Amino acid sequence: MNVTDTNNISYIDNTKVYLGAGFLAGAGALMFGVMPIFLSLIGGTFELTPQQVGDAAAAFNASFTGMSISALFWIRKIDWRATSLIGLLISIIGTGLFLAINSYLHLLSAMFLTGIGMGLLYSLSMTVLGDSERPQKAFAVKLGMETFPGAIVLFAAPVFILPKAGFTGFIGVMLMALLLLGFGALGIPKQDNTRRDLDKFYPAENSGNLLLILISVVISLTFFSGMMGSWAFLEFLGSDREISGSIIGATLSIGLIAMGLGGFLAAILSNKASQTIQFIIIATVHLVALAILAFVPGTAGFAAGSILFLFTVNYILSFTFGLTARLDKQGRFVALCGASLSGGAVLGPMVSGRLIESQGYTGMLTFSAICLIVAAFIFVTLSQLKASK
Predict the structure, then answer these.
(1) In Å, how far from its chain's centre is CA 118?
(2) R_g over Cα of the chain
(3) Which of 120, 187, 334, 358 is the most exposed place for a label (fewest CB within 10 A)?
């Protein structure tokens, strides 16, 4: 939402709220950040096929998506700070259950419960920052912050955690990260007091504008489907090319840091040049990264392609989220941006898992490229349509 004529929401645009929402987003996005190593770990620990691994990821993301969609109906009616603590508790319980898995069904249940808790945290952070007067900048900062917890875990896992404590130690580190990130609850408002009179400023969305809002959400859904389709299996790709686990972990952690920096760069450049031009440039860089992963062999190709691929992600998402927030003047649908990520994370690994079995990793990377091209076409078209109004 972009409001400049009222003081109802100015309290969002301050460092305390940005940090609080960023920390909660980091907790909500933690599973996304560690997904490559986590999926590889459960695949090896529980002897799963690629399809089962993809379906396990889908279980997490299905509940994450359901929570994000349901937030449309209650997120502005409850105490935000108390809700963040509930989401944190559910996330911790769900993550802790991985220490007591004895069947594939139990594994799916743990993934599903963790998705509920993290989906709640992420939806809350999206809603809070969606009230910003500068939504693209707010989302860019959030996207940058939420990346670093996963990057730290990915860096530490193959070097310090897995050799000494294995899967149990990895889950323990995730639990500690959730506890620390939970302090973000102290930075967000206790309640949403900004929307009770908002209808005085903005009438209900007409069907035409509602359609544009939903299309803007589809942009994020399409892009993230392709992104997660490759991200979830990057560790598998590196292992298939006989790259050592420590190098893979270091590459992915550096890539996540690059992803965070990409979000901060997007915040800095948000008003410096045409958003359409910036989007086209960064989308082209994303395609180049996929080509490097597909056609440049060895450690150098894997490292360069992975880091460049991840650098572009938050940059692109800051534009797609910002577009939705600008169209959604009442802030009623911005939480769907979280659902678009989790929905994409459901579709991406499921599709890629099957493509890998039938066509190898080239099929996976081609799927990601197609998703980006489709998302870019819709973004440019919708941006031009909005500019013409």
Answers:
(1) 11
(2) 20
(3) 358
In a domain, 4, yes or no: no
Burial of 183 (0-12, 13-18, 19+ CB in 10 A): middle
Sign of the CA dihedral 338, 343, 235, 120?
positive
Residue 50 lies inside a defined structural domain of this protein: yes
Question: What beta strand segments (E) does the chain contain?
Answer: none
pLDDT tens across 6-31, in order? 444 456 777 788 888 899 999 999 99
Burial string for 291-306 (b: 16+ CB within 10 Å, else e) reads ebbbeeeeeebbbbbb
Distance CA 346, CA 354 (A): 13
pLDDT tens, position by position, 197-234: 444 444 445 555 788 889 999 999 999 999 989 988 89
Selection from 280, 236, 220, 314 nearest residue 53 by Cα = 236
Range of the domain at 286: 10-190+205-388
325 found inside a domain: yes
DSSP for 331-358?
-SSTTHHHHHHHHHHHHHHHHHHHHHHH
Q: What's the rounded Cα separation, in Å, for the pair 368 and 229?
A: 7
285-336 pLDDT, tens digit per residue, is 999 999 999 999 899 999 999 999 999 999 999 889 888 888 877 667 777 8
Q: Which residue, 258, 234, 370, is CA-closest to 314?
A: 258
pTM over 0.85? The answer is: no
Considering its fold, how many domains does the chain have in total?
1
Does some domain include residue 1? no
Q: Which residue has the tokens 């969002």?
A: 12
User: What angle, 0 to 180 degrees and rounded to 10, lies between the N-to-C axes of helices 336-359 and 207-231?
Assistant: 40
CATH of the domain at 351: 1.20.1250.20
Determine the Cα–Cα distance for residues 264 and 259; give it in Å rounded to an integer: 9
